[in-house]
Structures are given as structure tokens and as C-alpha cells.
């Protein structure tokens, strides 16, 4: 039987670890672009350099164009390159107020609200991201057993004290 390995979690949180991984992945992408540019400086053909790095020729030409337009600075990820939100900041603020006023508790209800109020379609996953950005937490819903006695909480507390 295999034993589960132990890990010292005192050094960093999972969130910080994921942020560092994402940053290093970006650094590797920039490093690959620099390898490509270095090959071009050394008269290696675009096709040969692309094969070596495992990229398409179109990607190679895009990297070369980026380099020709701005050098080192143009090879990194552009800020704000994630795409434009379908909801404006004002609409998101209004959505937040509606959620609080109407005590909406599920992502599915928010999804329907966005569709009705703002005529915008999102996936349920994207609605969860929007809710997280608006500082709304969420918890997993739990089922209530139908045959549970009405005073179950009191009897649990009573039994726990004994």
C-alpha cells in the first residue's frame, strides 16, 4: 500500500503557488520567443526554428512581427489582453445592488437575472467568476432530509452537551 507523501505547507499558500506557476509559464513563453529570435539572428530559417520549438510557421511570423514592432517589450503578454467584458463596470455595480436587495443566493439565479436585465448571455462558470470579482462568496448547498424531526438542531445540541 502506498503512503501519501507529506508536504510542508508553511512556505506558501496554494493561491500564491498557482500565481507563481502562471508567472513562470509566461516567462517560459517569452523565453521561447527569444530562442526563436536568436535563431533568426543566426540565419536559421523560420520553418526550421519553428520545427525546433514545436510551433506553427504562422506563430513564428507573429513572433517576428512582434519583435520587429517593439523588441523585447513587445514579446511579453499585453496588459488587459484578456478580452472585453460584456457588462460595463456600472452594470456590474447595479447587478451587485440587485443581488443584495433581492437576496439572490445562486449562480443560476444571477445568470437568469443578467439575461433578463442586461440582455447578456454568460456561461454559469463566467457568472461564478463575476460573483467572485464582486466579492460574493459561495457555499455548497446542502439537502435537508425530509424525515428529519423539526427540533433536530436542539436535540443535536442536547445530545452533544451530554
In short:
This protein is an all-alpha fold. It has helices at 14-41, 46-53, 57-70, 89-102, 107-118, 124-133, 152-161.
Explain what you see.
The protein is mainly α and 162 residues long. The protein has 7 helices and no strands. It has helices at residues 14-41, 46-53, 57-70, 89-102, 107-118, 124-133, 152-161. The radius of gyration is 26 Å and the shape is elongated. The protein starts with 13 loop residues before the first helix and ends with a helix.
Average pLDDT? 83
Helix content: 55-70%
The Rg value, from CA coordinates, equals 26 Å
What quaternary form is this? Answer: single chain
Name the descriptors.
162 residues; mainly alpha; elongated
Amino acid at each position: 500500500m502506498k503512503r501519501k507523501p507529506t508536504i510542508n505547507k508553511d512556505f506558501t499558500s496554494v493561491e500564491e503557488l498557482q500565481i507563481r506557476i502562471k508567472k513562470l509559464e509566461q516567462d517560459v513563453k517569452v523565453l521561447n520567443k527569444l530562442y526563436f529570435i536568436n535563431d533568426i539572428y543566426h540565419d536559421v530559417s523560420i520553418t526550421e526554428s519553428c520545427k525546433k520549438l514545436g510551433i506553427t510557421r504562422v506563430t513564428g511570423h507573429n513572433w517576428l512581427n512582434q519583435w520587429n514592432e517593439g523588441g523585447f517589450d513587445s514579446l511579453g503578454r499585453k496588459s488587459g489582453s484578456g478580452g472585453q467584458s460584456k457588462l460595463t463596470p456600472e452594470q456590474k455595480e447595479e447587478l451587485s445592488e440587485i443581488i443584495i436587495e433581492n437576496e439572490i443566493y445562486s449562480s443560476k439565479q444571477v445568470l437568469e437575472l443578467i439575461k433578463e436585465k442586461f440582455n447578456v448571455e454568460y456561461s454559469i462558470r463566467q457568472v461564478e467568476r463575476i460573483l467572485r470579482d464582486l466579492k460574493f462568496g459561495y457555499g455548497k448547498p446542502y439537502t435537508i432530509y425530509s424525515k428529519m424531526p423539526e427540533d433536530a438542531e436542539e436535540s443535536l445540541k442536547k445530545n452533544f452537551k451530554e
